[in-house]
Amino acid sequence: MVMLGCAQAAVAQTDYGVGRPATPEEIKLWNIDVRPDGTGLPEGKGTVAHGKTVYATYCLACHGPNGQGGIRDRLAGGQGSLATDKPVKTIGSFWPYATTLFDYIHRAMPYTAPGYLSIDDTYAVEAYLLNLNGIVPDDATLDRASLLRIEMPNRNGFVPESEFVHIGNSR
Amino acid sequence: MKLYDRRGVDVAAGGGEPPPVEAVVPSPNFATRRKLLLGLAALPGASLWSSAWAESLADVPARSAGNLLAAHSERSEYVHLDRVLGAAPGKKGVEALDAFNSKTPQEKLVGIITPTDLHYERSHSGVPEIDPAKHRLLIHGMVKKPMVLTVADLMALPSVSRIHFIECTGNGWANWKKADDTLTVQGTHGLVSCNEWTGVPLKLLIDMAGVDRRSLWMLAEGGDGAGVDRSVPLTDEILEDAFIAYGQNGEPIRPAHGYPLRLIMPGFEGNLHIKWLRRLKFGDRPWMTRWETDRYTQLRPDGKATQFQLRMDTNSVITAPSGMMNIRPGYNRITGIAWSGHGKIAKVEVSTDDGRIWRTAQLNLPVLYKAQTRFQLDWHWDGKPTGIVSRATDEKGNVQPDRKSFIAQVGTNALFHYHAQQTWSIDSDGNVRNALS
């Protein structure tokens, strides 16, 4: 009996008869995360000019004209302010990855209808926001390849806590 | 043993008539004495005694038949406990439309368990109303068996119940640059709470789905409008401690706190305790989500930001006497809470002379791993202006820093992870105020 008990404890129980397999098709519906290496970044494209229209329709009411002066987060300017007594964190001054911006707009914006923007509109409004911050020119078109080439101004502005730089476990 | 009904009538003896109505009328001189005492309370110096209105036991209202029993018990009409809505540091009188957190009234609570409805709240896109029958948890990524689980599936699995604090990284942020002397402890430290949470160990789900051993990070995502998502490092400590909760203080999690499912990450940033949890994705590196780049990172004086500062620090605060209270000379009991993301609280010391001499406070049992711990200390105030302050030490030897050393180390722009010692100044009139030591 004791031997049997030990043997059972040594192998983790994994079959509880609950849950069901997830199908690839349904995973696709929820698998929206985008990593800095481009994993998860969909194909599509949008121009700064179109992004300005998208912004005026869905974003301006909260974030203000030109990404400033709105009732919610400021999106442009602030570069060079991070080491002062009044740091201004914006896409241009603080965000380290262009992929994070795509992910966030696509998953969470506009606030009242998250997920509403199409892939192309998301590329366009990101192009406009990067343009407001002087990161892409007025005539830029953003697509998967060009977005992955963008180096954000504060790309090297983050220092990970030493405890979580190299992760290991005894599994 | 005799059984009595709510009127105090012996049920076994066959009941009887209710007591006559006269019996519930207070003693004849009650109203007169009460007026007298209220008048007295208005006099200078009399306020100290206003709570002791009954000069004689004869003034205590007579016992009477009580209210009918109900399916739900409410607080006494004499008890007023509310959270207070908050926004950015220094903002006051915040309206619901502008609020992004709601703070726990620490000064009115006792023990270590925060009442469920008063547990602090930080929501990034409001509180979604989720029908648990339509909620699903997806587990995928670097796994052998991508799975979909219902809430009922999770509730059928072996569970754990643990008492842990959860703390918003913004707790204490009002005092980074200056001290508003009108703040209460609810205003300074209302973003930490402690509840019992019940759910399924993360490692059980990891084994069920057959997570690839090369997977060292997990993305946890909520079902709120913002789809708040954080990358979680799969360290041994987190594999041992983390669980997917469906229970809070013995009942289903309240919507504000993540109903129907919440990831519990004991000792780590509140925002890692993903509410309305609907997806766990396993990968080999962090995702660099908005929440772990733009938001929950800490600016240093040189303009760089500390990232993945996930663990909540060793901390404590005196909850009484605290901001906006008034004390009188003589005996005063000092009490407060201490907590640490490193483990158990080992010691709390209190100074009643602005940090010069420290005395060890009594820790009320139980002292639990990554939970709030209640401390108290006897104090006789001599009536002279002073400052009272607490400092916690945890079982790993981490000591809560004094404010000057803390600011010297991290500057004043970090916004999050403020855990310096909290000083309450006391003037010669006994007024207790928020102060920077």
What is shown here, in short?
The complex is a heterodimer of chains A (171) and B (437). Chain A is mainly alpha-helical and 171 residues long. Chain A is 36% helix and 6% strand.
Strand-pairing-aware structural class of chain A:
mainly alpha
* Overall helicity of chain B: 10-25%
Order of helices and strands of chain A: HEHEHHHHEHE
Total helix count of chain A?
A: 7
Instruction: Catalogue the unreliable spans of chain A.
Output: 1-10
**Strand order, sheet with most strands of chain B:** 5-4-13-8-9
* Share of residues in strands of chain B: 25-35%
State the helicity of chain A in percent bands.
25-40%
Q: Give the chain pair forming the largest contact, with residue counts.
A: A-B, 49 and 60 residues
Quick one: overall form of chain A? globular
Uncertain residue segments of chain B: 1-49
Largest sheet of chain A: 2 strands, antiparallel
- Quick one: how many beta strands of chain A? 4
**Strand line-up across the major sheet of chain A:** 2-3
Write down the overall geometry of chain B: globular
Describe this structure in words.
The complex is a heterodimer of chains A (171) and B (437). Helices cover 36% and strands 6% of the residues of chain A. Chain A has seven helices and four strands. A two-stranded antiparallel ribbon of chain A has the order 2-3. Chain B has 437 residues and is mostly beta strands. In chain B, 10% of the residues lie in helices and 28% in strands. Chain B has six helices and 24 strands. Chain B has helices at 30-41, 151-156, 185-189, 202-209, 236-241, 403-410; strands at residues 84-86, 101-103, 121-122, 137-141, 147-149, 160-167, 192-201, 217-222, 229-233, 243-248, 251-252, 262-264, 277-283, 298-299, 305-307, 315-320, 330-339, 345-351, 359-360, 362-363, 373-381, 386-394, 423-426, 432-435. In chain B, the strands form six sheets. In chain B, strands 5-4-13-8-9 form a five-stranded mixed sheet. In chain B, strands 6, 7, 10, 11 and 12 form a five-stranded antiparallel sheet that branches. The longest helix of chain B is centred in the first third of the chain and has 12 residues, at 30-41. Chain B is globular, with a radius of gyration of 25 Å. Mean pLDDT of chain B is 90; it is low at 1-49. Strand 1 of chain A pairs antiparallel with strand 5 of chain B, so a sheet runs across the interface.
